Amino acid sequence: MKLEWLQTFATAAAHENFRQAAEILFISQPAVTIHIKNLEKQLGFNLFTTQGRRVLLSEEGRRFLPHAQAVLKSYHSGLKDMEQWRQGKTRTLTIVISPLLAASVLPRIIRIFTKAHPHIDVVIDVQDSVFIERRLHDGSANIGLSLLPTSGSNIHQKLLHQEPVLLVAPHDGGDAETMPPLDATTVLTENVVFTYNHPGYWDSLLQMLHTRFPRLQTMTVSQSHVTKRFIEEGLGVSFLPRSAVRRELMEGRVLHVNVPEFDLPQASTYLLYKYTSEEVFQFLSYV
């Protein structure tokens, strides 16, 4: 039994279409048919049935599919392991991290850590902060970088960083040195405020905003990168951590609006882990 027959079968089964399988595998459609026929001959049963021009998995094909997928997964896992070994990587560290942190603080940390520990294969799993603890509990990640503190007593927690939250508005086209600064009250009453792009501070911040601006217009935009894009396009304003908009502010794509009327919250970053290991301790020394 050849692995290429299993790969062809798994691909054809996923689409129930030999033509699409041929396009995905960069082989001819007759080659797909030959691989399937050879596999069926060795197994002793049909993997597909036909219904008019349609190709459908047979009952035997549906039963055999997870076994074929398991063989292919094991094969590719073995190849990956050997490639890591060839590169001198003998250990793996899986970091689950929120999208906001992955795009802002993680690149600097990874650059330093991987240079100091080239034998560690670093895997990055990007998840919303509410799902990070789950990854640590089920063992699929070693370390979590989250915007939320832990909710469980069996998760270790370290407060890494706190930073100011800024009111960010579209660039008005004026010269920053000659134009008067934007007025926060005007900005908030004349624009839609994009909310809940950060899981840590919006409940209390919104309560404060609604108290001061009862007619405040809001729109939930759950991802910070989408929020920033909307602001650049002039669709509204938002409150974002300083690190999330550092580049946009430096390049003049958005503006920081001072809010002297009330105290803005701080955005926090937490490092979470459940089990200690040599790799975890080494990473802790860099953050």
UniProtKB/TrEMBL annotation:
Kindly provide the name given to this protein in its UniProt entry. HTH-type transcriptional regulator CitR
Q: Which organism is it from?
A: Marinococcus halophilus
Domain (HTH lysR-type): give its ranges: 1-58
Query: In this record, what's one Pfam family?
Result: LysR_substrate
Could you confirm whether the keyword Manganese appears in this record? no
Tell me which PANTHER family the record gives: HTH-TYPE TRANSCRIPTIONAL REGULATOR (PTHR30126), HTH-TYPE TRANSCRIPTIONAL REGULATOR CITR (PTHR30126:SF64)
Which keywords accompany this UniProt record?
DNA-binding, Transcription, Transcription regulation
Organism placement in taxonomy:
Bacteria, Bacillati, Bacillota, Bacilli, Bacillales
InterPro entries linked:
LysR_HTH_N, LysR_subst-bd, WH-like_DNA-bd_sf, WH_DNA-bd_sf
Any single GO molecular-function term of the entry would be:
transcription cis-regulatory region binding
Q: Which family does it belong to?
A: Belongs to the LysR transcriptional regulatory family.
